[in-house]
Amino acid sequence: MRNHAGNGFRAGSQKGFSLSEIMIAIGAFVAAILIVLALSISLTRMNRETVDRSVATSLGTRVLERTLREIRTSDVPVTQANFWQNDYPTGSPLATGTVRVGTTDFSYQITAMTVLSGGNPVGSLAPDNRLKRVSIELEWYGGERAGYGRTSTRLTRLVRQGEEW
Length: 165
Hints:
This protein has 2 helices and 6 strands. With 165 residues, it is of the alpha+beta class.
């Protein structure tokens, strides 16, 4: 129905938004802000997790290389002989320690086990030709953290006796 002015609106109607339309728009805006905030927090957490894992991998490589270098270049021949004659399983590791990087403490444990084939050490038929699997296990935040899951990593290296390692 047309009003007297002929502009298509009924007399007494006003232009603008109703209160319910404004409330719906504000609710949608708040929901969008909360979604962006949740994604931002999630991305920050994933970024921190990636940085920690990268630091642990780099640290593990350095500690493992340093430990092997100390064994190889030791002035005490017993150190090398003990390394090749004995295994160092999880319950009796070759080395343990904790290193702080920034505000994160990384605990590590180095194990060394003779590689076997058919129950015999690989390379044992030739003198000074044994093979060891040397592993370093690193943990941070006690091995698990809420929202992160597992916070540990393991690096492994094969070392052959009589070879430069």
